[in-house]
Predict the 3D structure of the following.
Amino acid sequence: MMPVATVMPDDTPMFDPNILHELDWSENTTTFSPAISPLDPGDGLVLRPLCTADLNRGFFKVLGQLTETGVASPEQFIKTFEHMKRSGDYYVTVIEDTNLGQIVATATLVIEHKFTHSCAKRGRIEDVVVSGECRGKQLGKLLTSTLTLLSKRLNCYKITLECLPKNVDFYKKFGYSVSEENYMFQRFFN
């Protein structure tokens, strides 16, 4: 058996960051006060794709403020990252505080390929979370607006998300409406 090469975390992005910079921000439907954008998310902040080095910049710490993350080894993290990157359908986006070298917010856009709607694509926003010390800086709004515009740029016929009832009004600001369908699930493990 051949030994497995060790891959070290680095700053290679999950997807081309230029796609975020090329979004038509004039199509954004939400107001920001003070004004922020994907190119200017705030003092000392950078909005960009996830990279494997973010494992050491507190990515799981932020994600853990949303849900149970479990324990993942660096090898598991890199393997999952590489799978997502190769598929071309995952847009895990982070906001880094460059002064601290820490991830302070993240959200994911997943593209689902459909046979319906003339073999169209559907976008789905997942795992939107802002670290406790950075809430109130519009970063959740910025991530949601950015990923909504990105799904449009990627020619998705629609975009969906799941949220708690207490967050419905927040997402309505972006043009989302409550579906008449029920969200159902089965959990196989935590």
Notes: The first strand starts at residue 45 and ends at 49.
